[in-house]
Design goal:
This protein is mainly α and 332 residues long. 67% of the residues lie in helices and 0% in strands.
Length: 332
């Protein structure tokens, strides 16, 4: 297990805390929401230093560039670059799903491959076409092969998502276990639990059976998968009972009434996201260490996600109140 020294992160902690003061905060996002049109909202984004000099139509590329710059900087100033590879696995997973599906449909989707993965998109595409994964972690490589084989046999693209998404979560857990760093372990564990709990609730709503759920649930969380699947078979109330006996009861319980009544999942999913934000907010109590750096990356992810929600909503003519409802809590 790799030892973690908080003093090694003195420079990196100071640097990211300075950068956080320049990010979009809730007030900036609300200002974007209240703008009269998309162009005015895009200007607010520019004022924050994002997508500067780009055509408004290219705002997605500007957001992706901003996030890529954040990851690149963190890996440059942090002494343990590999620690932050955990947060890139999601993009490796996105790229794998895109490549697998595009081969079976004979499509060309290079334009939607992400440049944020641990393995460069072009490299991953070459390895996938050659059938040999040398740069990808073993968990994801095995999942890619299984998903590709499953799609070839069944023609079901949903199976690709299930296999790869679960592998991403389990790769995150395996990587976190390599470090003697409780904060990172707590975050990844909670991240997996939130993904599993969301899956259980969504799949119950979809009317799928327990066998489908078992294929989806990832290892690595605190909520026992066996108890969750047993509860799933009995109904939504039993799923809520499992959550009530977990460390997440206080954060998620306010959304239970809507789940019981068959209401929208928005409040529950927002509560899951907000739990992770609150967990990362603990980093503000840490003078220096990897905690503030991890929180900065999450804040950048949240900033980009929120800006995307606002801009796409403005372009679609969504009412300001509805846009505000869609946003999660932020760290800034």
């Amino acid at each position: 297990m790799k030892q973690y020294q908080d003093t090694d992160y003195l420079h990196a902690s100071t640097r990211v805390r300075t950068l956080e003061t320049r990010m979009l905060d809730r007030r900036d996002l609300q200002k974007m929401i209240e703008c009269r049109n998309f162009d005015e909202a895009f200007k607010v984004l520019n004022d924050a230093g994002i997508a500067v000099g780009r055509d408004p139509a290219d705002f997605e590329e500007g957001l992706a560039q901003s996030l890529d710059e954040a990851y690149t900087l963190v890996e440059k100033i942090a002494p343990e670059k590999e620690l932050f590879s955990i947060f890139r696995y999601r993009y490796d997973g996105h790229n794998l799903k895109t490549l697998i599906k595009s081969r079976r449909t004979h499509g060309e989707y290079d334009q939607i491959l992400s440049g944020l993965g641990n393995v460069p998109a072009k490299t991953l595409k070459t390895e996938f076409e050659n059938g040999r994964f040398e740069k990808l972690c073993r968990t994801l490589a095995e999942a890619a092969e299984a998903a590709d084989e499953s799609l070839a046999k069944t023609g079901d693209p949903q199976a690709v998502d299930i296999i790869v998404d679960r592998a991403v979560l389990e790769a995150m857990a395996a990587k976190a276990a390599e470090f003697d760093f409780p904060f990172l372990t707590d975050y990844v564990t909670a991240y997996i639990d939130m993904a599993n709990l969301r899956s259980a609730v969504r799949i119950k709503r979809m009317g799928k059976d327990v066998f489908f759920l078992r294929r989806v649930l990832a290892a690595g969380g605190r909520v026992d998968r066996g108890r969750l699947t047993d509860a799933f078979a009995k109904g939504m109330e039993e799923i809520l009972s499992v959550i009530s006996l977990s460390p997440y009861e206080k954060a998620l319980e306010p959304s239970f009434d809507l789940l019981r009544s068959g209401g929208a999942l928005t409040q529950f999913e927002r509560a899951c996201d907000n739990y992770l934000v609150a967990l990362l907010a603990r980093s503000k109590l840490v003078a220096y260490g990897a905690e503030p750096v991890i929180a900065y990356l999450y804040a950048k992810e949240s900033e980009v996600r929120a800006a995307r929600i606002v801009l796409t909503s403005k372009a679609a003519g969504v009412a300001p109140a509805q846009i505000t409802e869609r946003l999660r809590d932020t760290l800034c």
